[in-house]
């Protein structure tokens, strides 16, 4: 993607995240995950126990400094700069926008707020950026290991919510877990960069399809030769493993080049070996 569409996607994600905080999160008394949740928790602690109201941006920007520096060095410069813009924009919008009630039903706030939160984060991820905080950490670990750790981040958020429950009541904390679950499941469903798919492709034009696999995904393939049991004819089959987010584009290119190709796609739950990931930038 070009930098301008990426910038616009990140900006939209920042606006939606801020609107989510000002509508569903504040109305339901919920605590989002990651550094956003820690920021809101610190704001509430300072207000309740010290009587001091501190702007959202003070904690939110401060918490993200170290993760941003790590990602700038190890993940990518453009990735980090777009993520910093997301952090700056969402912080400013959160402080400037007024609270707005769409529904006073806490369960509805938990479900739809979680979905909106997951969607706003997904926009940033599709643009090659992140919403900061624990997302910085998850992207860094995923880039190093090639594995999705969104569920591990969910466990970390549960710990934060336990502290929240002890201080401000368990009902709000339990509804916040519903919020987190909805956001995590949407992320796992929509964003598939760190998920793997195995493709078995039977074709009479394997030499041409190998080039397509390399061009589209940057990965290679293994060629097998066998016998088709129906006609007893010799057949060739390609085996390759790719990131699941490349699956649709690759299959479309294969079927365009060879409409008669037989493609079997399987989800890969575990992969051991050298699997090269494209850099974020």
Features:
single chain; 281 residues; alpha+beta; 4-stranded antiparallel sheet; 10 helices
How would you sum up the major sheet? Answer: 4 strands, antiparallel
| Low-pLDDT residue spans | none
What spatial order of strands do you see in the largest sheet?
Answer: 2-3-1-4
Discrete helix count: 10
Helix content: 55-70%
Beta percentage is 5-15%
**What oligomeric assembly is this protein in?**
single chain
Structural class: alpha+beta
Structural description of this entry:
Helix content is 63%, strand content 11%. It is elongated, with a radius of gyration of 22 Å. It has ten helices and four strands; from the N terminus they run ααααααααβαββαβ. The protein starts with a helix and ends in a 13-residue tail after the last strand. It is of the alpha+beta class and 281 residues long. The protein has a four-stranded antiparallel sheet with strand order 2-3-1-4, covered by helices on one side. The model has no long low-confidence stretch (mean pLDDT 85).
Question: Would you summarize the structure shown here?
Answer:
The chain is 63% helix and 11% strand.
Topology:
Layout (H helix, E strand, L loop, with lengths): L2 H26 L5 H17 L5 H19 L2 H20 L9 H21 L7 H12 L4 H19 L1 H21 L5 E8 L2 H12 L4 E6 L6 E10 L3 H11 L4 E7 L13
Antiparallel strand pairs: 1-3, 1-4, 2-3
Helix pairs in contact: 1-4, 1-5, 2-3, 2-7, 3-4, 3-6, 5-8, 7-8, 9-10
């Amino acid at each position: 993607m070009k930098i301008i569409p990426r910038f616009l996607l990140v900006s939209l994600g920042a606006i939606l995240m801020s609107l989510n905080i000002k509508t569903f999160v504040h109305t339901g008394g919920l605590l989002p995950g990651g550094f956003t949740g820690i920021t809101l928790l610190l704001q509430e602690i300072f207000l309740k126990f010290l009587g001091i109201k501190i702007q959202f941006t003070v904690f939110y920007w401060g918490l993200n400094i170290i993760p941003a520096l790590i990602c700038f060095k190890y993940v990518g410069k453009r990735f980090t700069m777009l993520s910093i813009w997301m952090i700056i924009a969402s912080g400013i919008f959160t402080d400037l926008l007024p609270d707005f009630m769409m529904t006073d039903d806490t369960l509805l706030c938990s479900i739809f707020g979680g979905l909106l939160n997951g969607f706003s984060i997904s926009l940033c991820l599709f643009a090659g950026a992140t919403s900061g905080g624990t997302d910085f950490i998850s992207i860094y670990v995923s880039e190093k290991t090639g594995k999705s750790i969104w569920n591990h981040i969910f466990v970390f958020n549960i710990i934060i919510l336990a502290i929240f429950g002890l201080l401000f009541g368990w009902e709000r904390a339990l509804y916040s877990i519903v919020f987190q679950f909805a956001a995590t499941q949407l992320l796992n469903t929509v964003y598939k960069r760190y998920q793997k798919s195995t493709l078995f492709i039977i074709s009479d034009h394997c030499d041409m399809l190998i080039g397509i696999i390399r061009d589209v995904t940057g990965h290679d393939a293994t060629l097998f030769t066998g016998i088709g049991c129906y006609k007893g004819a010799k057949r060739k089959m390609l085996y390759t493993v790719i990131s699941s987010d490349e699956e649709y584009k690759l299959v479309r290119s294969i079927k365009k080049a060879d409409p008669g190709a037989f493609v079997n796609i399987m989800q890969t739950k575990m992969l051991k070996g050298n699997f090269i990931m494209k850099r974020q930038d």
